[in-house]
Amino acid sequence: MKEIRFENVWKSYGKTEVVKGLNFTIKEGERLILLGPSGCGKSTTLRMIAGLEEITSGELYMNDRVVNDVPSGKRDVAMVFQNYALYPHMNVVDNITYGLRVQKVPRSETRNRLDAALKMLKLEGYENRLPKDLSGGQRQRVALARAVVKKSNYFLLDEPLSNLDAQLRVSARKELVKIHELYRQTIVYVTHDQIEAMTVGERIALMNEGKLQMLDTPENVYHRP
Ligand code: ADP
Ligand code: ADP
Predict the structure, then answer these.
(1) Fewer Cβ atoms within 10 A, N terminus or C terminus of the chain?
(2) Which residues form the ABC transporter domain (predicted)?
């Protein structure tokens, strides 16, 4: 199962505990939102799944296997960052396909995945542009395309829409849900925005001060009597 399971996971920076005993399961193929106020440990939790932060104690399982010591490059994850983290000197095509070149995916397969991603994310015609010559919405779509072409089973997003204006955010949410309905990866999506959580999430994990407070559907999180 391409699920993610936290068993008593703690994370400290020095003496400061920022994640305090997480116990929960993210189901295979679901869109799970990590929601909570700034500083509550959402990014740290996501980065532990990505393999970008070490786990201080406890066990993190992915696909029924403890991955605490598995490096990021071997975790079958694709990540989209808040600032997109595009390579400024690479054009759109090179940004999108960079990871596939590193993985030595054959050229024809790379071409197919690239063409599909350019089409789906409406980036045709922008292939040779550098990031600085794209709008915010286009940069965000390049970052999504770069993650999509990896065809990873785990799709991790850290406030991916927070740099967009309100109108673009609405269309980007729809794009994301559409991508997920095609591929059904396991999605973990960090946000502090309640509206975003309710429109993108199938379930919401509510965090506060390093702990999980509630894990339920948007309806049950927000419409409890
Ligand atoms: P969120 O994503 O919910 O805003 P983070 O996971 O980014 O929260 O951060 C949780 C806490 O951990 C914050 O108090 C933050 O200041 C602290 N923190 C994050 N990264 C580091 C680090 N590298 N060193 C020390 N403290 C950190
Ligand atoms: P969006 O509505 O997607 O945010 P903008 O209104 O920012 O787009 O830009 C409108 C058009 O101008 C887009 O097609 C974009 O490709 C183009 N564009 C934006 N910034 C630049 C730039 N620095 N150089 C060339 N073209 C640009």
Answers:
(1) C
(2) 4-225
Considering every ligand atom, which ligand is closest to the CA of 22?
1
Q: Is residue 225's pLDDT more than 80?
A: no
pLDDT per position as a tens digit, 42-54:
999 999 999 999 9
State in Å: Cα 54 to ligand 1 middle: 13
Residue 71: what are its φ and ψ, rounded to 5°?
-65, 155
Scored b (16 or more CB within 10 A) or e, 89-124 reads: eebbbebbbebbeeeebeeeebeebbeebbebbebe
The pLDDT tens digits of the residues spanning 53-64 come to: 999 999 999 999
Q: Which residue owns the Cα nearest ligand 2 atom 13? A: 135
- Report whether 133 contacts 21 (CB < 8 A): no
Q: Is the C-beta atom of 191 inside 6 A of ligand 1?
A: no
- Is the CB of residue 164 less than 8 Å from the CB of residue 195? no
Nearest Cα neighbor of 159 from 214, 110, 197 is 197
Distance CA 76, CA 185 (A): 11
Beta strands in 15-54 (DSSP E): 16-26, 31-35
- pTM for the model stands at 0.86
